[in-house]
Amino acid sequence: MQKYIIDAQGKRLGRVASEASALLRGKGLASFKPNALPAVQVEIVNSSKVALSEKKLSEKRYRRYSGYPGGFKETRLREFIAKKGMRELFRMTVLRMLPRNTLRSRLIKQLTVKS
Q1: Which GO BP terms sit in this record (predicted)?
Q2: Checking DSSP bridges between strand 111-113 and strand 40-45, what pairing results, if any?
Q3: What is the CATH architecture assignment of 2-52+86-113?
């Protein structure tokens, strides 16, 4: 199993997440197959020291819908971090960058985030 460590200190959230999602898929491996689960482990360190601008903290919104009438919920990034933390923010960001297929849930289990 190949292990990658990404240092998030001073980097932007999206840049770190896109790098992690590409590594999780195994895009850098010579044996890349889009339908196979690669033997890769990705670890993100210093997640609490990621560079987030004040504008992003106040204006970025995460939306979800339950499917029921009136079930539309919206949370700002600052509130999301206060409630769920940086680990969940990174996990959710990388998860949304992975393809929506049956491998997605197995790929995200290969990701670990440390503050």
Answers
A1: negative regulation of translation; translation
A2: parallel
A3: Alpha-Beta Complex (3.90)
